[in-house]
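Hey, I was hoping to borrow your eyes for a little while. There's a protein on my desk that I can't quite get my head around. The fold is given in discrete form, as structure tokens running alongside the sequence. I'd be grateful if you could look everything over and explain what you see. Here's the protein in full, and shout if anything looks odd to you:
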Amino acid sequence: MSLPRTLGELRHSPFSEQRLQKRCVKDELRENLLYKLREGGSVFPGIVGYDDTVVPQIVNAILSRHNFILLGLRGQAKSRILRALTTLLDPQIPYIAGCEIHDNPYAPLCRRCHEELAKHGEQTQIAYLTPEQRYVEKLATPDVTIADLIGDIDPIKAARGGHELSSEMTVHYGLLPRANRGIFAINELPDLAGKIQVGLFNIMQEGDVQIKGYPIRLPLDVAMVFSANPEDYTARGKIITPLKDRIGSEIRTHYPATVEEGMEITAQEAWARRDGYELQLPKYLQQIIERVAFAAREDKKIDKRSGVSQRLPISAMENVISNAERRAIVNDEKVVVPRVSDVYAAMPAITGKLELEYEGEMKGADHVARELIRTAVAKTYDEYFSGSSGELRQVVQWFDLGGEIRLSGDAGASEAVNGLKSIQGLLEKISVLGLSEKSPVAEQVSAAEFILEGLYAHKRIGRSEERVFTAGEKPVKKPERTFEREEPPARSRRPFN
């Protein structure tokens, strides 16, 4: 079905005058959300871990026709959620062709559209907006001006059109008027200067804006949404209280609650599909990468106010796969199987995501990252081998008797497996990980290295920076001190004079 292209055609289409005039953007969001809720399924596909926490609060805000703000640390999908709101908009809406603020054909706001209607009447040309075109986003920075957001006088328009500066035809519309009949999002709201925040008062409460130099008010139809860091969104921060008071709902986001949720997000976002090589990504390695982020969020050496973004495991995963891919290319292997050594090789993707406290800065980012990886390996190892420490005693004894092995991160699977076979009982234990002697060699090597790294993480064996696994350092037993009671020396008796 072709869409109406003139105002006359539009009047006899589903885009009736009564429907378009009485249905604002917030009504549209509400109606489409109610339809989704009745149909069932996910309201925001691709948003993981928020179904029982954040999403219900957003649903309530939309049903209440509120402007709302998402408060959360970096890497908590705030921008993605705001952009996902376009899925609740109609597939298309009509507007007067050529209008900068996408005027409703039945109730135009700007002077140009009034003149177009007076000149062409029912033949006024109609264009259409898609949901993506109805979403306008602005990253708040200190240099944003009222002209950027609201608008200003444009002398060039006046000169080219022969208009007086007092004419409405010389208005340069800012981002907010251009978001008319859509969604306007501001990321990091507290970073706007205080006087710019004041400029949002009218649109938040009265629903209109006043453009500098013109005695007119534009009653815009727009849904306002924001994002901010909780640390800045306080009385001590950079947000002004009257603006905070005008925001209908304040919704807090969070990091994944479980390792499984984090793994699902990382698997969804990380670039893992590479051309030319088959990838076999062990589950225990995915858990280690995810637990690095979980350990970092709990570590006292890392600034909790800055948070540890979910981008850390995503970037680390991509680096881990790339390092394994490089090893496969060098050794002419057809299957890419990452190892724990690849997680250590991915430290550049970890250290840049950490904001260290004083103690962490004293130790250095590399040292902190190694500790995090070791902690993650230990916790993952416990998940598979908890309670079976005695079964690995044979492996530990092999090292205690003087055995050692060097597992280079660049060594091919065929080369590495020959050395691993010499460790008594090691390759038998990979069955716990769902592998056997018939499994691909690269997977056996990865699993065996994981077991050794787990023993090292628990300090049952040792490992050098050159990745030479040896016997662990045994605690030196201090000799027991015995205390014998000594008789005091006899006093010499002197005769009294």
Notes: The first strand starts at residue 68 and ends at 71. The two ends are 136 Å apart (CA to CA). The chain has two domains: 7-252, 259-471. The mean pLDDT is 89.
